[in-house]
Design brief:
Length: about 400
């Protein structure tokens, strides 16, 4: 069991205070968006200055036989603290087959990894689980097309948008959503967006779902004025999470986080296909190829109790996640059969292994090698991640 230090990532949408407060650091006044705890080669967490990727390569016995057989010496889990003070881009992540194909194609084309039009930075999929630490808002997956048509109608602008959203009620299935999404991204004038915003201002104070629909448009307009992709974002389900709620995002799911702080756990990948609400590169053809345009309702991740910890149930082999609300009564940290990462979110915790103990405060983390039985006690929230196999 060793202390682990993560890497702060600075993006414009980040909070200026949330991550510094977690880490006990003085805010710089600049946005800090993510705190990475994993072995991703381009931004690994460190133990005494040595990258976790290098340590696990040098000590394969730390990983665990089952994980090593499934993933080799590439540790499959990446845990982050995400702090969004403003909306992120519309984005989706590839499945494994798409990532392997895209990475090979862009390597063959000799596109540098740092190029702005580079999409595939590795050959891994990127399913995700977001667990809210504060109230958290976002957009996730496509709403039922008929429900979207009705919301535009109740907003009062369905007739003005008929040329764009007509396929939502004229056709059925993913093809209709794909056609409308592509048409929206192809708009070369903001007239339709301006009409939606004009109507949204009339309904922004409504207390029903139309008011929420209107406020989504107005929020996005604040940061991405007159962008056609505001209309694309309005095709998605609006979500609101309470602290402790978990949202699982399968690969190929179009989404955008709007505001809040959460723990995000994912496969160890940095593959992002952007679909709007950004000034960065958008490859429309690749996006249409990767995104799943099937409409689905959004449900919270199911949980189960696991020895005093709450486990968030996900189908992915790359990661598993637990949350423990520690007390003075020691609890055994789950999964001795794999390498784990533990992160204290609040309070103070003591982790014990044999005769060794590590005291942790909010923002501090450990890596626990395979086979080590560790108990945890204190007055703290402890997140634990491990491979899902």
């Amino acid at each position: 069991m060793l202390r682990l230090t993560g890497q702060v990532r600075d993006y414009a949408w980040g909070s200026t205070t949330a991550i510094p407060e977690l880490l006990g650091a003085t805010p710089t006044g600049e946005p800090q968006a993510e705190y990475w705890l994993g072995a991703y080669p381009q931004s690994p967490a460190t133990v005494d200055g040595v990258g976790l990727d290098q340590l696990l390569h040098d000590h394969p016995d730390w990983v665990g036989d089952r994980t090593y057989r499934a993933f080799g010496d590439r540790y499959p889990v990446l845990m982050k603290v995400l702090a969004a003070d403003r909306p992120l881009s519309l984005q989706a992540h590839p499945n494994r087959e798409q990532a392997e194909d895209g990475y090979a194609r862009q390597n063959k084309a000799k596109i540098p990894l740092t190029a702005p039009d580079r999409i595939y930075h590795d050959d891994w999929p990127k399913p995700e689980l977001l667990i809210a630490l504060t109230e958290f808002d976002g957009l996730c997956g496509f709403r039922d097309p008929m429900a979207t048509t009705e919301l535009f109608a109740r907003l009062g602008c369905a007739s003005e948008l008929e040329s764009v959203i007509g396929p939502l009620h004229e056709r059925k299935g993913p093809a209709a959503l794909a056609e409308v999404f592509l048409d929206i991204l192809s708009l070369d004038h903001p007239g339709e967006v301006d009409e939606v915003l004009r109507r949204a201002r009339q309904h922004g104070d409504d207390g029903d779902e139309v008011g929420e629909f209107a406020r989504t448009a107005l929020t996005l307009q604040t940061y991405f004025p007159h962008q056609p992709s505001i209309l694309a974002a309005l095709l998605l389900n609006r979500i609101h999470l309470q602290p402790g709620d978990g949202l699982y995002l399968p690969t190929r799911t179009l989404h955008a986080y709007l505001h809040g702080v959460g723990v995000e756990v994912m496969a160890s990948s940095d593959n992002v296909l952007r679909g709007g609400l950004t000034a960065k590169h958008i490859d429309v053809d690749e996006l249409i190829h990767v995104v799943d345009f099937t409409a689905r309702d959004v449900t919270l991740a199911e949980t189960e109790q696991d020895g005093g910890f709450t486990r968030y149930l996900t189908p992915t082999p790359e990661f598993a996640v637990w949350r423990g609300e520690l007390t003075s009564q020691p609890m055994v940290v789950p999964r001795t059969d794999s390498c784990r990462i533990g992160l204290v979110i609040d309070g103070e915790a003591q982790l014990n292994h044999d005769e060794a103990a590590i005291d942790l405060e909010a923002g501090q983390a450990v890596v626990i090698p395979y086979g080590e039985e560790v108990s945890a006690a204190g007055s703290a929230t402890l997140f634990v991640t491990a491979p899902g196999v």
